[in-house]
């Protein structure tokens, strides 16, 4: 076929067909009509020579160039129309919570490698919010972000308020309260005022709803618990309670008890009472005690299981009364202090004090009337005791429990000596307890006095130490030595109990030691200590007993109530 003939045929137009298919393909037009080719050019010759399509390329190239030119014109027209638009996708605001306190404008988002410009503005595809690889990351990018925000919260007390942007859908799927506010019967279209929640605590709530993260800090945990309770976010509330239980000490137990009553958290209340009962004097002398509410004060002063002296309770009530007078704007006088105490004063068991404690403390405080003071002095000193208006029965306190780690004891000549060496043993428990002291073996060669130093450590840190004495009568019984205050011991952590004895050289020692001791309410696990230089270990040696306050079983509580 000649080139000129082929080109002319391409300009004639027509449908492509295959003579071998009987014209079936004739109904299938080529994409462009300008490219129609006569059937004679596509059929084989008589000599069966192969079909030559080279001559078709020039017209096809021409058609392709026309298409490209048309597409370029269309793109230019779209660009002109787009540049006239006023609604474009802006770059997102900073997502860090710290930016909410800053007045400086947000820095522009970095452009991705595939960034495209639209009339000088960023497109949706270039915004980092939409480049996150997971749903969690995308939600995290929207936290505290004005992008697509459809609600704003004004949080905190005026004039120190903070405005936080949010997205109704995210909040509504995580909280039934937010659902009612935005889509239910409480539906509102205005900014939401939240004066009773701290901004940092509300930000913690938002972070949980957006990112499923729980970031709790000691300074804001109570405020966060309050916000979780207010907006019915139970998992966040549970995490706050768990944090409080772990960080619970005698210094904050009374204040946490007051808050747990407000939040109706019975499990946290139980943990608080465990600490207050066992370490009552430390709890009552803490700075937070004066900040508790009145119902909590009544509960503490009427508690039967407190392990403390009545003079400590009286002084704590006096400190609370002084703080309450200041809160109510009253002059700090004995009359006003007794007024704010009310019935709480009658719960202090004045007759159970020592005479010197009463004479130097309560009798000179000015809170008692002259008749009350006279009757109480007569109650302390006279054979015929007058009736008094204060309870006369001592508090029961907590019952001491003992863990015995040896099954037997023995003594042999030159077998167990001291000479200033350390006897130590590591132990761990599966529930929180309060170690009161140790039981120690004494002399095996007759009566003797011992000087002893006892210590309790956690990871090498000394939690408590005490130098004291005890008298051994020469028997194989153990002799208790106590710390000044019970020491809180957490579960699943190894502690080291140590003792250094100075006295009669020969003493009893334990044998057939147990690596695990299971009591009705708590289990102990023992392990050899590297600090032990006098031979004490799991199988034998000193420190045969650990004396502690701990949880009690239901049967034990019933027995104690019957005895009371």
Automatic annotation (TrEMBL):
Q: Which SMART domains match?
A: BACK (SM00875), BTB (SM00225)
UniProt entry tagged with the keyword Protein biosynthesis? no
Q: Where along the chain is composition biased (Polar residues)?
A: 79-95
Tell me, which GO biological process terms does this entry list? neurogenesis
All copies of domain BTB, residue ranges: 149-218
Instruction: Write out the GO cellular component annotations.
Output: cytosol
Keyword set, alphabetical order: Cytoplasm
Q: Which Pfam families match?
A: BACK, BTB, PHR
Q: Where in the cell is it found?
A: Cytoplasm
Annotated region Disordered: the residues are 1-123
**PANTHER family listed in its UniProt record:** AXUNDEAD, ISOFORM F, BTB/POZ DOMAIN-CONTAINING
Protein name per its UniProtKB record: BTB/POZ domain-containing protein 6-like
**Which species does this protein come from?**
Hirondellea gigas
Q: From which lineage does this chain's organism come?
A: Eukaryota, Metazoa, Ecdysozoa, Arthropoda, Crustacea
